[in-house]
Amino acid sequence: MEDYTDIGATTPEALEISRKSRRLISELIGDDRPEDRIRQRCVIATGDPSVAGLLRFKGDPIQAGLAALERGAPIFVDINMVFAGVLKKGHNSPVETFLGRGDDLARQQGITRTSAGVLAMQERLDGSIVVIGNAPSALLSLCDLMDAGSALPGLVVGVPVGFVNAAESKQRLREMDVPSISTEGTRGGTPIAVAAINEIINAHARSRK
Fold this sequence. Notes:
Layout: H1 12-29, H2 34-46, E1 55-58, H3 61-70, E2 75-77, H4 80-85, E3 95-97, H5 103-109, H6 113-120, E4 129-132, H7 136-148, E5 155-158, H8 166-174, E6 180-183, H9 190-207
Helix pairs in contact: 1-2, 2-9, 3-9, 5-6, 6-7, 7-8
């Protein structure tokens, strides 16, 4: 862990805190595989070691994410809190939010604004990275598009939180033929979504040095 560098830590004190956190968490959950780095970061983001056991990885999502970042694929997120947390440096991918992109459609069809944003931007989703931390409806709409062959992202980080369709939307994502990172059950949210994608961004930035 001594050589670990977090591009989000911009001062010596911040970097030392990051490295100390990594050392502590790696002793709890291990540091043997690339997925462990994502587990570590999600545990640090939530302060909850049990989160490590909830994460699910399908279709080599880390390599899929690195490949998407290498080609500068866009990163689409569900809400502004996730947008604010995603690192904007260490890569050349634009970061955009679904929120506010399909408001007319939301009013016309009576669906959520995030779901409408997914539908409104479907033509840009192929090969992209999609990060959903809060809106099960957005993830379900994305799965509908993938089922219909209308969109195929390069990576989906799908960890919406809540008691209405959150667990179901993530289970459906795991049944899709797309690289994904998700959580079991009702738990998830912005901290986990941001932690997962930012760890992939960190890995990408380190690989380019």
